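Sorry, explain these tokens?

***
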Amino acid sequence: MAKQWQHNPLGQKTGAPLAAGRPGAFAWEADKTQHVIYVGADNQVHELWFRRGGFNPQWQYGGALSVKTGAPAAAAGSNASGFAWEGDKTQHIVYRGQDNEIHELWYQHGLGKDKWEYGGALNAKCGAPAAAGDPLGYAWEEDKTQHIIYRGQDNNIHELWFKKGLLSAKWEYGGALNAKLNAPAAAGDPAGFAWEHDKTQHVIYRGTDGNIHELYFQHGLGKDKWFYGGALNAKCGAPAAAGEPMGYAWEQDKTQHIVYRGADNNIHELWFTKGLTGAKWAYGGAISAKTGAPVAAGDPWGFSWEGDKTQHIVYRGQDGQIHELWFRKELMSAEWKYGTALSRVANGPAAASDPLGFAWEDDNTQHVVYRAADNGVHELWFRK
């Protein structure tokens, strides 16, 4: 297949219900599958999935998972978060219900399971506060744990975490992380991710002061606790944020990155690497302006494609198109480039929501999903 972006109208192809918000998506490498999840106009959590291999692989509609499992409906206007926990051979979806509790749906292979189950209202189980925003979940493979972070009605960042032990396996409440560390309250929903190479996990959020604040947790050397990393953009001389930041690790490059929309509607980057001369955050600049890319109308999403040795940022422009910025370290240069208006070159519709992107390493592809003006779920994808 030629090296070009393709468009796939997933909702239309599979007969799935219309979406009400931004879809979430992730690859499950061990299962050789990719998944798209979203809250529909009926406030139920819906799934689309695809498995590679066979003679004619096609997208399938997995159904209204919240209905199938007897779980509560999602809060109107909310977005679900999904992720795979490779070490546990499970996949997970977390969302805010109409009761403002954090609900979990999960799926495990083997032992006759192979079906979705309802994990309950996790914060209520743990005695944690109710949510004011949408949760985000992620796995920390090196630590053999999974984590959920969310903004509570007190505007603090709360954590729920889970680890399987020899005698027990249950969710725990990690507390109001920013309050523990005397970090500012949040003005929006947090993002979180694990940096496997560094044996750390990170939570970032926009504070009430408009700055990007970091909380991080590190293993070893008697640490094993949360630290406040400060107002990162202020440290680096970068502008304040106008939207929610998003963070990710680039394992092959041994770096971590934060991307966000500034008040100038440009996409800004902060990045961190550990070197022989020290470890510090740096400001990568207004990369959309640097590359001549259009300004943004919403919040960006960033991810690394380890097999391709690249990192990517996708966002919705003020023209309604999905735009891409990408970076590869070359022998003679290392700079961000403007890819294109992906939705336009792939003949996809304009966007009505912010996009979400991810790499599917086993399939050697990258994917972008979004809700279009028709409220259908659409996919843009690229294979090397």
About this structure: The helical segments are 10-14, 65-68, 122-126, 177-180, 232-236, 287-291, 342-345. The longest strand covers residues 267-275. The chain has a mean pLDDT of 95.
